[in-house]
Amino acid sequence: MDTRIIQLLARKLSGEATAEELAELDELLTRNPEGVYYAELIGQLWDEGKMRAPMDTDILYMKHIARHRPDFRGLGKLSVKPVIETEERLIETGELRDEPFQRPPLEGHGRRYWVGWAGVAAAVIITLGYFLYHGSAIKVPVAVAEKDRDYWLQQLDRLARPVLYHLAQDDLKKSMPVVLSLRTDDAVSRTRASYLEAFGRVLAGVAPWLEGEGGSAKEVALRNQYRAWALDAIRHATDTAAADHMAWDSPEQALVDAAFFAYALVRCPWLWEHLDTVGRRHVVEALVSTRKIRPGFNNWILFSGIIEAFFCQYGLPWDEMRVDYAIRQMEQWYVGDGLYSDGPKFHDDYYNSYVIHPFLTTITDIVYKKNGGYAAMLERFRQRDERYALIQERLINTDGSYPVLGRSVVYRGAVFQHLADMAWKKRLPVQLKPAQVRCALTAVLRRTMEAPSTYTKEGWLNIGVYGSQPGQADIYNTTGSLYLCSAILLPLGLPDTDEFWSGAAEPWTAQKIWSGQDVSGDHSID
Length: 526
Hints:
Blueprint: H1 3-13, H2 19-31, H3 34-51, H4 57-67, H5 69-72, H6 80-92, H7 111-134, H8 148-168, H9 172-175, H10 187-211, H11 217-238, H12 253-267, H13 269-273, H14 277-288, H15 301-313, H16 320-332, E1 334-336, E2 339-340, H17 351-371, H18 375-395, H19 417-424, H20 434-449, H21 499-502, H22 509-514
Antiparallel strand pairs: 1-2
Helix pairs in contact: 1-2, 1-7, 3-7, 4-6, 8-10, 8-11, 10-11, 10-12, 12-15, 15-16, 15-17, 16-17, 17-18, 17-19
């Protein structure tokens, strides 16, 4: 039986199913008629268990046979008379409606077999359903059928394939539907920018994996395919003669996603190294053209900064003033305990993870390697990075959910880009074991990407945090901007032999606390 049926049945029986989940269950049972019988049987057991203590299994068994009398005819060992008498009595008392369901015959109709099977099935349905829905239980850190890395690769493929495949074919603009926020501020410019949003963001998320080597034969083949798609996608996005040539110098949103594209090339030197001379020239021209866009006085200064850092990393002419301005201004916006304000005023959202921490430290790292600059500031940045990684890990609830607050929440798992980035760079604070971070991020991935209606029937992301929730969008959100959720996948850049992937499953902080384990207290920094 489909595990999704088990999951939804458990939700229905416990009274937690939403209307959307109930509709999904009905649809699955229609497609899988064999599941109807088992669903009805377990539902009957569940209801009897709530009404009687202890359960009268004799009556329940006779009710079961009475409902399915046609299926039992011809069985020599079964007396039909008591079945008929029981059915008539149950109908008279109202315990059984005279509306028998039509179900496939049940094999093995002995009472002992039936009671044993039903009891085991009920336990399995409810227990397995709970684990399937919640992803993990407090006392069991991970309850998955496949290896975590395999699961992450499946998610990467499902997420990135439509964008990179179609752009590699030079038909992304024809294929990708652009859905705008219900409150969009400019439909024309937002639509125009959406394609670069999807490309730059998804490439930034999968870049570390593209840079990596090794893995199973299946993973190597998948990486090779994505490398080829990525190179073709870059060529089409930057070639003015291509159908999918992107808008790099306008509207203003282009600066944001040109920055994510530049960040992808910073994270994956393999891509830059394997571009031909013409391809590299087109990339440089596209990124230089963004200099005409003046960044907002907020985290956007880091977008200009990362583009110049890209030039710096690859020995190209770069604007040191744009970089210096970004670094020093962000230092002025530090508010304490590992957090920066996004502009002059602090906002309680996830932009410290979406942009500030990863971009700021990466920019400073590149310049430091180039000329040794900002050494003292870099040390402070790294201490703050560790503190914010600790905060992020504690935000992940026992079931992989997390507080949904502030703007841009439809970026889903990108809420934890900083934690993922720290894991990939092997800079996690000593308090966090790599395996526990893997388990925590896997729970988030499951929670945000397995929700019903996360994707359209054609495979594109829907706006939302948990499934399709268009009301969650801010005025600037589009289909393309959603692909920042790929940032949670950064640790795929680590080899499968790294302790992040090879370490035994570990409970994360919320699981430890809410299962009664003693955990060290949390402490702020200056």
